[in-house]
Amino acid sequence: MPDTTEEPSAVAPTAQPPADLFAAPLSGPAAGDTAAGPAPTDPFAPPAAGPASTDPFAVPTPGSGPLPGRANGWPPPGLPGAPAARSWSGFAITSFVLGLLGFLFPLSLISAGFGIAAVRRRRRQPRRGLGLAVAGLVCSAGWLLVTVAVALLLVLVAQDLKSGPERTADGRPKSAGQAGPWYLRQGDCMTEDLGVLAEEPDKVTVVPCEQPHRTQVFAVVTVPGGSTHPGDAAAMAAADRLCTAREQQDGLDLSGLPQDASTSFHYPSPAGWLVLRDHQAQCFYASAALWTGSVRPG
Description:
This protein is α+β, with helices and mostly antiparallel strands. It is about 30% helix and about 10% strand. Helix 1 runs antiparallel to helix 2, helix 1 packs parallel to helix 3 (about 130-160) and helix 2 runs antiparallel to helix 3 (about 130-160).
């Protein structure tokens, strides 16, 4: 039986050369390809331009700021949606101005009233000027404190002016008592030795001259001068000259004076000259020893 097995063909298929792994890729479709697919996309390429983003949280691009005349994106004042501009409070301005002038007593009270009204009205109608209202209240409170202090000082001075023992019909003290130097008159006697005091005391003990005492006023003179104090040296010289003249003029009986008695005086101080209009100086005889009687004839 004939062998029907086919022998392999002696012609082998043509071998393809191996592909170069490091060769550059072809720029176009391969030869013989009739339907080339889309080119591969680069994952690192920028995205193509598209419609504007509608993301409300997106960062605006340059040139996309608020329209002209709209500060911070708000419409101009007066247009719908714009914040209302607050006006100044007239009460706050009035409180501040009157507070600065609060040294005139009634104005400080008026300033405080306007300041309180401005603060209370601000809760219902917010307006500018809260700082002015607070400043006006502070100024008015300060001036009120100063006014009260001055008033108390004047009351104390008035009480001191009225202090002292009651006088008789002829002007002599009826009994002993504390008094200020402005109480003293010609002929008054005191238990203190005023000759050893460098300054006029605030209080002295006045007694009837029939009782033991160390000082007696023999004259009260007025130091010349205007509204300004002449100075300590000038006031002292004037008081010394006037007291010496009065001692020689009055011809006083000095037989009852102690041996160590001396002539002295107190002249007005700058504060008393300015505040109390005190231009008077007291001339007196003073001694360390107690004595009774008066230097004036019985």
